[in-house]
Design goal:
The longest helix has 25 residues. 72% of the residues lie in helices and 0% in strands. The chain has 15 helices and no strands. The chain has a domain of 154 residues: Alpha Horseshoe (Serine Threonine Protein Phosphatase 5, Tetratricopeptide repeat).
Length: 294
């Protein structure tokens, strides 16, 4: 039996499509490789072995060998590099996929998403130094690349270096005005502010997080994300009196996809508040209030 076209739907196409998906508050992209390979590489390989029959595994191995032979003759053959990445991902071999992906990214520097995928893969395997280098290659050309910045600050937070993450984001905001004057829209200031607020919130620096979100709201009052982010922080602090108003504002500004999710969240909050209110009401208070005869 061979691997059918539908069964082996292009992993590469999936890679490229996932790159375009925004996370809910729009400040980080869905980490493709870590999503596909959340387990350790050996368990992924075992899963792949169980998923394919022996004949299918043999065909995948033969395809990989074919691409390798092409690359021996033509090391820069993009089609073969891309094919080898695809096959190794199907095999569940993340470490094996990263080698040709790194070469492919070097040959396609005009497409930073490939370098970011490489960084995410290295991060997943614990190669933090390699991940930093891959992200920095992107940021050297595009200092406002939100996905690369998000990856870098996540690495710095994992290594317990929050101040480095904060400094990097603050420096990016400092150069944003001049950069955007020279090339309008080069740096999405609101997204960088949201990243900075996220770092503050992760450190329980609530006042600073809220201040950043307030700045984002003031400078871009038609963007739903700062309203939503501020509501999330206030909810964590138990400041529910302001949360509903902020979520309503976010819902009024959000695109349809996000509007529905925010409205569902508001409905859950209302239901929870009503339930709490009923639980706190004394039994006798549920009786009708007597009226006075006229």
């Amino acid at each position: 039996m061979t691997v059918t076209t539908s069964k082996k739907r292009s992993s590469w196409l999936y890679l490229v499509l996932v790159v375009a998906l925004l996370a809910f508050v729009g400040v980080s992209m869905v980490p493709l490789i870590s999503g596909l390979f959340q387990a350790n590489p050996s368990s992924v390989a075992n899963t792949s072995t169980q998923r394919f029959s022996s004949e299918q595994q043999e065909e995948l191995a033969a395809r990989a060998k074919g691409y390798q032979l092409v690359l021996e003759r033509e090391p820069d053959n993009s089609t073969a590099l891309r094919g080898l990445v695809e096959v190794r991902l199907e095999q569940g071999d993340l470490p094996g996929a990263l080698e040709p992906l790194e070469k492919f990214a070097e040959l396609n520097t005009q497409e930073p998403d490939y370098a970011i995928l490489l960084a995410e893969g290295k991060q997943q395997l614990g190669d933090y130094e390699g991940a930093f280098k891959a992200y920095d290659r992107v940021l050297a050309k595009d200092p406002g690349n939100v996905r690369a910045l998000d990856g870098v600050i996540e690495l710095q937070l994992q290594q317990n270096k929050p101040q480095r993450a904060i400094d990097r984001l603050q420096n990016t905001l400092k150069i944003a005005t001049q950069t955007n004057l020279a090339s309008p829209g080069s740096i999405d200031v609101t997204s960088i502010q949201l990243l900075l607020g996220k770092v503050y919130a992760r450190q329980d620096r609530w006042t600073e997080a809220i201040a950043v979100y307030d700045q984002a709201i003031e400078s871009n009052p038609k963007d739903f994300r700062p309203f939503y982010a501020k509501a999330s922080v206030l909810e964590q602090q138990g400041e529910n009196s302001q949360v509903k108003a902020l979520l309503n504002q976010a819902a009024s500004l959000a695109p349809p996809k996000y509007k529905e999710q925010i409205q569902e969240q508001l409905a859950r909050m209302s239901a929870a508040a009503e339930s709490d209110s009923e639980a706190e009401t004394p039994e006798g208070d549920n009786q009708d209030t007597p009226t006075t005869d006229s």
